[in-house]
Each structure stands twice: as C-alpha cells, then as structure tokens.
TrEMBL record:
The lineage of its organism: Bacteria, Bacillati, Actinomycetota, Actinomycetes, Streptosporangiales. It holds the Pfam family DUF429. It comes from Nocardiopsis lambiniae. InterPro entries: DUF429 (IPR007362). This is DUF429 domain-containing protein. It comes from the Bacteria.
Length: 221
C-alpha cells in the first residue's frame, strides 16, 4: 500500500511516502502536482473545498479539538475572498461577506489553497485534507503538551511517530533544505493517508459540508 503525506514548506512542499505503513522517504517538491505524483492515496495539509458563503465548519470543529494548539488552524473564508487580488481587497470583501476581518496569516495561505483547489478540481489524484496537529492528537489520544515549534514539542511528536513505526531518519538531507517540523508534519499527514487508505480515518465533520461544486469539505485524521 503506497500513500503520501504532504505539508507546505518554504518555496514548495515536502512529501513523505509510506509503503505498507512504513517510512519510505521524504523529498522536496516545488509544486503540489509533483508531490502528489508519488502515490495513490494522498493526504495534504492544506484547506480543500471552498464555500460560496460562510465559513468552513470543519475548521471550527478541529480548532475546538486542539486545546492549546488551536492557533494552528486557520478559518478559511468563501471562495470570492480567497480569489481576491491582494490582502486589502480580500480583507474588505471578507468583512462584507462574513462580518469578520481576515488575518494576514490566513491570507498568506491563499496561493497554496488555490494551487490545491485547481488540482482538486482536476480530480487526479484524489486529495484528502488533513491537519497534522489533529493527526498527532489522535496518535497520542490526548492533547499534546508542547508547541511543535519548541524542542520539547518536536521530541514529543518524534516519539509519537516512532511509536507508530514511521519515524523519519535524523538525516533528512534527501528532503532538501526543509525545516524538520515540516517533515514531521508531512509524516503525520502520511500516517493519516494510510488511515484513509485502510478506511480507519475519521472525518470532521461527518457528514461533511459541500462546497459550491458539490464536493465534500472535511478534515480527515
């Protein structure tokens, strides 16, 4: 069974491949299309499914599950906001459509969201949205103690991946100049991709919302 987990990183994406549930390499890819070509079942840490109106329900539900780490979840506004030209225009439109402003951190994700959206609309491969912090939380069976940006947090996540039998090697040179935390997140995404492939993954919300094209909007873990 061949799966891949993908996380955004500086200048591109990092993809981690699992074969039969075991770590089989990590590499840097400049485009999401290249990263998704590595396996049949693909899980990516990027919002998938843009709504015509309102906010995505799954973002709020996942945020509520991640006690102490809810700031890692960005609420994604309607498609027209994501497609707006520039932050000021997007922020104004977001206020008009939702009654709330737009953070610059959320806006910084929009180019990646649109890259994934175009690939999703093409339908090959089928993409599954995951959130690594939720994947780690499910692995642990409890909220994690430390932020992933700290030494303790990365050690905690390494222990979880080690227990799952998918700890990446210390030498991550094959992944290029990619921050360790992004490789750990991509590995957690791959763990969820394996759960999707085996039918073990849960979906938040279940049943999912539908986007403007009638596709599901949910985060799997």
């Amino acid at each position: 069974m061949d799966v891949v987990g993908i996380d955004g990183c500086p200048k591109g994406w990092v993809a981690v491949r699992l074969v039969d549930g075991r770590f089989d390499g990590a590499r840097f890819c400049p485009t999401l299309a290249e990263a998704t070509s590595m396996a049949g079942t693909v899980a990516v840490d990027i919002p998938l499914g843009l709504l015509d109106h309102g906010w995505r329900e799954c973002d709020g539900l996942v945020s509520a599950l991640l006690k102490g780490h809810a700031s890692s979840v960005f609420r994604i506004p309607p498609r027209r906001v994501v497609e707006a030209d520039g932050y000021e225009a997007a922020n104004t439109l977001c206020s008009e459509l939702t009654g709330k402003g737009l953070s610059r951190q959320s806006h910084a994700l929009f180019p990646r969201i649109l890259e994934a959206d175009a690939l999703r609309e093409a339908g090959v491969p089928e993409l599954h949205e995951v959130h690594p912090e939720l994947s780690f939380r499910v692995m642990a069976g409890r909220p994690l103690r430390w932020s992933k940006k700290t030494w303790n947090g990365q050690a905690e996540r390494r222990r979880l991946l080690d227990s799952a039998g998918i700890l990446p090697p210390d030498d991550l040179a094959e992944a290029g100049s990619v921050p360790v935390v992004d490789v750990l997140d991509a590995t957690a995404a791959a763990w969820s991709a394996h759960r999707v492939a085996t039918g073990a993954a849960q979906c938040h919300p279940d049943p999912p919302q539908l986007d403007g094209a009638g596709g599901p909007v949910a985060i799997r873990c």
